[in-house]
């Protein structure tokens, strides 16, 4: 079989990516989405026919692999060829992407659990914090405070403030934490939520309150709030669960 790979722009492949992620059993968060969007994208051709797509991040990490339904029987030989592209050494695979996961697991050297992907249970009552917290959207004047108290937790702070993505949380006049709502590019109705709590105020429920506040904003805007956390960040996992979120999806790093 003669497989060929044609490099294409993100705009050329984005409709296929958007259609694909809508078929998954769980949404993917902004961490994986950013890796996908900043990858190098390829159309997969069998002879002269386009049969699917794949994406490679920074030359070494497969972030997407999919074939059109009528060509899925070509999955194993096609994926073997994908592994020979650029300098591929591993794949980022969400467990909700069954086709990609099955082929990534056929022959591997090491499997690492990378992250949890969370979504909100609509049947869970909203979390109401007992703390006297005040939340608001961040503005330009808040940038020095965000930079000083959160370190390098947030990237592109100035741009995110201008885009209305960052939020401030205060208690008794003190800044105790920050929140972020990052709208998805691949989904029309999904936004990733995240929070950072100033170290002195951790362990008292501030993080849970911030996530609950961000969920309320998303729901009012007609968005599905999701979140992700590193697999070994047990405190963040507990915070998200307390705020009414659950995870049925993992992000795996599969190395070859």
Protein described:
The protein is built from eight helices and twelve strands. With 256 residues, it is α+β, with helices and mostly antiparallel strands. It has two domains: 92 residues, Aminopeptidase; 136 residues, Gcn5-related N-acetyltransferase (GNAT) (Aminopeptidase), CATH 3.40.630. A twelve-stranded mixed beta sheet has the order 1-2-3-4-5-12-6-11-10-9-8-7, sandwiched between helices. Strand 10, helix 7 and strand 11 form a beta-alpha-beta unit. It is elongated. The mean pLDDT is 96.
Compact description:
By secondary structure, the protein is an alpha+beta fold. It has helices spanning 10-21, 30-37, 75-82, 98-104, 143-150, 157-162, 206-220, 234-242; strands at 3-8, 40-46, 49-57, 61-67, 90-94, 110-120, 133-137, 166-171, 174-183, 190-197, 224-230, 245-255. It contains 8 helices and 12 strands.
Work out the count of structural domains: 2
Helix content: 25-40%
Low-confidence stretches: none
Name the beta content range: 35-45%
Multimerization state:
single chain
Q: Ends: how far apart?
A: 23 Å
Question: What keywords describe this structure?
Answer:
Aminopeptidase; elongated; 2 domains; alpha+beta; single chain; 12-stranded mixed β-sheet; 256 residues
How do the strands and helices of this protein lay out in sequence?
Layout: E1 3-8, H1 10-21, H2 30-37, E2 40-46, E3 49-57, E4 61-67, H3 75-82, E5 90-94, H4 98-104, E6 110-120, E7 133-137, H5 143-150, H6 157-162, E8 166-171, E9 174-183, E10 190-197, H7 206-220, E11 224-230, H8 234-242, E12 245-255
Parallel strand pairs: 4-5, 10-11
Antiparallel strand pairs: 1-2, 2-3, 3-4, 5-12, 6-11, 6-12, 7-8, 8-9, 9-10
């Amino acid at each position: 079989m003669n497989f060929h790979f044609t490099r294409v722009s993100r705009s050329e492949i984005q409709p296929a990516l958007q259609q694909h992620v809508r078929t998954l059993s769980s949404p993917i968060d902004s961490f994986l989405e950013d890796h996908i969007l900043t990858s190098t994208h390829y159309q997969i051709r069998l002879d002269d026919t386009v049969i699917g797509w794949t994406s490679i991040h920074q030359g070494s990490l497969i972030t997407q692999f999919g074939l059109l339904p009528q060509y899925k029987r070509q999955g194993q030989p096609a994926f073997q060829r994908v592994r020979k592209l650029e300098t591929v050494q591993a794949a980022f695979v969400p467990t909700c992407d069954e086709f990609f996961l099955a082929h990534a697991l056929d022959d591997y050297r090491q499997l690492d659990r990378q992250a949890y992907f969370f979504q909100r249970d609509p049947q869970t009552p909203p979390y109401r914090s007992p703390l006297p917290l005040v939340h608001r959207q961040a503005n330009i004047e808040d940038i020095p405070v965000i930079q000083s108290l959160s370190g390098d937790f947030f990237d592109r702070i100035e741009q995110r403030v201008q885009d209305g993505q960052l939020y401030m949380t205060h208690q008794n006049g003190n800044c105790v934490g920050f929140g972020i709502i990052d709208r998805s590019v691949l989904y029309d109705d999904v936004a990733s939520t995240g929070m950072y709590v100033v170290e002195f105020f951790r362990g008292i429920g501030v993080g849970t309150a911030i996530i609950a506040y961000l969920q309320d904003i998303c729901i009012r805007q007609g968005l599905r709030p999701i979140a992700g956390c590193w697999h070994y960040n047990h405190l963040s996992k507990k915070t998200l669960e307390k705020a009414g979120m659950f995870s049925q999806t993992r992000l795996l790093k599969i190395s070859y």
